[in-house]
Amino acid sequence: MRAEETDVPRLPRGVKLKYDQVRARHVLLAPERAFDIDETAAAVLELVDGKRTCAEIVDALAARYDEKREVIADDVKDMIGGLIARRVIET
């Protein structure tokens, strides 16, 4: 599954992005599940607020990391789509 540019992703009720002090890394917590995520995924998930579209998330990341939009767009849409398939992001 792949997210579309116009999708507005959000974390469903009960799903939270947390920084685990013990492991010194971000974790995506969902009911009865936890996902270890890297810094790149955390940067994307910090922008998932139910207001921004995937296109706006890509634009914000491209500006933050001074990277061409087309370089990161596919990865962001694939990642969000994968998390939608696992039911830890909704659109």
Automatic annotation (TrEMBL):
Xref: Pfam families: PqqD
Pathway participation: Cofactor biosynthesis; pyrroloquinoline quinone biosynthesis
Protein keywords: PQQ biosynthesis
Record bears the keyword Metal-binding: no
InterPro entries: PQQD, PqqD_bac, PqqD_sf
Entry similarity comment: Belongs to the PqqD family.
Free-text function comment from the UniProt entry: Functions as a PqqA binding protein and presents PqqA to PqqE, in the pyrroloquinoline quinone (PQQ) biosynthetic pathway.
Quaternary state and interactors: Monomer. Interacts with PqqE.
Protein's name in the database: PqqA binding protein
